[in-house]
Amino acid sequence: MINDLTSSVIESAIKAHKILGPGLLESSYKECLAYELSKKGLFVEKEKPVPLVFEEVKLECGYRLDLLIDNQLILELKSVDTIADIHIAQTLTYMKLMNIQYGLLINFNVVLLKDGIKRLINKYYK
User: Fold this and answer.
1) Across-strand partners of 69?
2) What are the residue boundaries of the structural domains of the chain, listed by start?
3) What digits encode the pLDDT tens for the residues 12-53?
4) Does domain 2-121 have CATH number 3.40.1350?
5) Which pairs count as long-range contacts for 11-17, CB under 8 Å and 24+ apart, including other chains?
6) What's the rounded Cα separation, in Å, for the pair 42 and 89?
């Protein structure tokens, strides 16, 4: 169930944030979160390639999402002052291109991690 998966991911993200604190590079949080989720027995793919299909041609443009969890939840991680609309658009685009219904955009550069989490739903999911 996606709510259980999302809750487990958020719990792990909060744990990593409490230990590491804000202000590190995104890659630090990605590695720690991937490790923590793997310990829970979840299938974690890091730097998952995102294919772009244009007029039935699959193009390799170098897009990579941060983490894909159990083939059903995209995690896009940031360590920025403020989540911008472009970050939301990027995550939603990855979700659309990968045909994944749910995503979390997590900004670790906040005092309380709950203030840096945005849940997203792909309205184009088939």
Assistant:
1) 44, 73
2) 2-121
3) 999 999 999 999 999 999 999 999 999 999 999 999 999 888
4) yes
5) 12/36, 12/37, 12/40, 13/106, 13/108, 13/113, 13/117, 14/113, 14/114, 16/108, 17/108, 17/113
6) 26
